[in-house]
Amino acid sequence: MSDTSHIVCPHCDGVNRVPSGKLAQNPKCGKCHQPLFPGRPLSLDQARCNRQIERSDIPILVDFWAPWCGPCKMMAPAFEQAASQLEAQVTLIKVNTEENQGLAAQYGIRSIPTLVMFRGGREVGRVSGAMDTAGLVAWARQHL
Ligand SMILES: [Zn+2]
Q1: Strand pairing of 91-96 and 122-128?
Q2: Residue 2 has pLDDT above 60, yes or no
Q3: SS3 call for 124
Q4: Catalytic residues
Q5: All domains of the chain, ordered by start, with CATH?
Q6: Residue range 15-41, pLDDT digits in tens
Q7: What percent of the chain has pLDDT over 70?
Q8: Ligand 1 center from residue 63 Cα (angstroms)
Q9: How far is ligand 1, taken at its centre, from the CA of residue 29, in Å?
Q10: pLDDT of residue 1
């Protein structure tokens, strides 16, 4: 196992090499100097989301949602809170499937909300339907 992890900055898409021991110490991006783990999920488009999935050495958890979806809105605060509990182990991303239909098609998203966990560029877990914070964090930890 490598002692550095590649982390893709959620702000500028720069790829950072972070010593594994420093992941939990609020590392900053070498390019834009913003926190690599901002404590909340960021909304990314198709290209930027794929860059995270393909280049990051830590798992990426994607919330596929849409503005018209009631259960998605109910789950949004839980996903926010889960970010503060899971970050540095996982990067959390939100994808608006209305604006990124290509990405939803690429990963075969048929219902929302759907959470998909990626590791090493591959899908390792998927669950559909709204969850509360505790359920979400527990589900994510099963896939680390
Ligand atoms: Zn950056």
Answers
A1: unpaired
A2: yes
A3: strand
A4: 69, 72
A5: 38-142 (3.40.30.10)
A6: 999 999 999 999 999 999 999 999 999
A7: 99
A8: 22
A9: 5
A10: 52
